[in-house]
Design a protein that fits this description.
This protein has about 200 residues and is mainly alpha-helical. Helix content is about 60%, strand content about 0%. Helix 3 packs across helix 11. The protein is globular. It starts with 7 loop residues before the first helix and ends with a helix.
Amino acid sequence: MRSKRRKLPGFILFGGTVLLGLALSFPASDAIHVLSTNEFCVSCHTMKAVGETFAMSPHGGNNSQGFVANCVDCHLPKSNALHEFWVKGTDGTRHVFMEYVMGMTALDYDEVHPKRAEYTYESACLACHKLIPAGARDATVDSSVRDKIHATVLKNRERDDAFHCAGCHYDVSHPGLRRVMQEKYYQALAAHANK
């Protein structure tokens, strides 16, 4: 005669594993939240000009609603948690390495700006901005023309990287970035010359 096996230890092991996973995920979630704030993102010297120009933009609070986006709202994909975590980790590691190991003191605007679509995710733009219908957000552009442009972009973006929100809206979140970066460069030169 076979004895009945008790399933209670398996259930306890599974329940304990779930509780341990939850207990570990809360501190990780808090860490991700802290590492995703605008204050943290612009804490590196190389990001100071980026932070200043962001504050002057509609995304940085310069709008009638007072809305302020987070850097990660634009610079992380809106896909799944694993992909977002991977992008956050690899981008963060690259930034820290370049600043603290390689001694980078400023971004190279002419190198980075043409690659802006690589650092701004279309899925992030579309998560906040519902393009069709586009509505009359900008009085300088006829809304029917704007709707046709957006429809063309949306139709072609899957097969052609040139059709990307950042292709047209290239300084919307960092207006005057090149100028501010040049001013900071000249200020650093002047400070060095006065030593």
